[in-house]
User: Which sequence fits this backbone?
């Protein structure tokens, strides 16, 4: 008997994969957590039935949510990840030698522990690295308690439903602004330009009203709805379009490159229109 998993990504569209087994299933205090093995993409993490990451394509998301901002800031020393309990963003952050402290603020400890066991290549820096501080806390609360503390803040959230709703609100972004240093930068995953246009427009408008520099960029992630994914970066001073690619160091990446840094901001017309008033 063949087993297939289908994520209904909209009311009329979904993605389906053949699976060989369920490796882990639990109801944490926050959400339903499942890990399955797929024939095509290896192990896959599901939260409340939504695909979060897979063995085969995780590097795209984790590299693109981290390195664009970290290479835009001239000297990032303290970095915060809100969400991101799988550890992939932390793994990429500590590739930057300037970073003295990488803090993970994940509300669900169950995600951290499950990923340590089933995704060791993603969660590789969550244990034993003195530069990493793993906190099982409410990221929104932590933001509001951290005035001027961080050089870069990354919002590595699930989709804007359930426990992640507050991570897409203007008040949260104002809190991030206040938690950043005077030349700080934030970046957030902002969903699919095909299926979440209203959300992208709203988030971009909210961030633009708070930060002097706001940019939208995209990456190709096969398991995320539509495959075309967006990120929004907002900065108090530094513009990612002004980065000298020749000064970007090789970071042992699979997707992100110095040449790619600027090109990801060259948006298709229908996506660029989402950034206009």
Assistant:
């Amino acid at each position: 008997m063949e087993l297939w998993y289908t994520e209904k990504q909209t009311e009329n569209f979904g993605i389906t994969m053949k699976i060989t087994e369920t490796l882990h299933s639990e109801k944490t205090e926050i959400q339903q957590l499942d890990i399955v093995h797929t024939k095509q993409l290896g192990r896959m993490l599901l939260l409340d039935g939504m695909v979060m990451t897979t063995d085969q394509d995780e590097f795209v998301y984790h590299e693109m949510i981290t390195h664009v901002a970290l290479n835009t800031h001239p000297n990032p020393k303290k970095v915060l990840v809100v969400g991101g309990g799988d550890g992939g963003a932390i793994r990429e952050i500590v590739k930057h030698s300037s970073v003295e402290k990488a803090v993970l603020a994940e509300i669900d400890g169950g995600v951290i522990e499950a990923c340590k066991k089933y995704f060791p290549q993603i969660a590789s820096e969550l244990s034993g690295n003195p530069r990493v501080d793993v906190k099982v806390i409410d990221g929104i609360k932590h933001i509001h308690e951290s005035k001027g503390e961080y050089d870069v803040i990354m919002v590595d959230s699930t989709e804007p439903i359930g426990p992640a709703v507050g991570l897409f609100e203007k008040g949260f972004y104002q809190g991030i602004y206040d938690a950043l240093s005077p030349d700080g930068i934030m970046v957030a995953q902002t969903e699919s330009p095909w299926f979440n246009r209203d959300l992208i427009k709203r988030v971009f408008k909210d961030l633009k009203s708070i930060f002097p520099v706001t940019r939208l960029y995209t990456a190709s992630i096969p398991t995320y709805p539509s495959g075309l994914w967006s990120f929004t970066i907002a900065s108090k001073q530094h513009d990612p379009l002004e980065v000298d690619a020749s000064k970007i160091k090789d970071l042992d990446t699979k997707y992100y490159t110095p040449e790619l840094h600027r090109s990801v901001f060259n948006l298709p017309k229908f996506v660029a229109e989402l950034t206009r008033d």
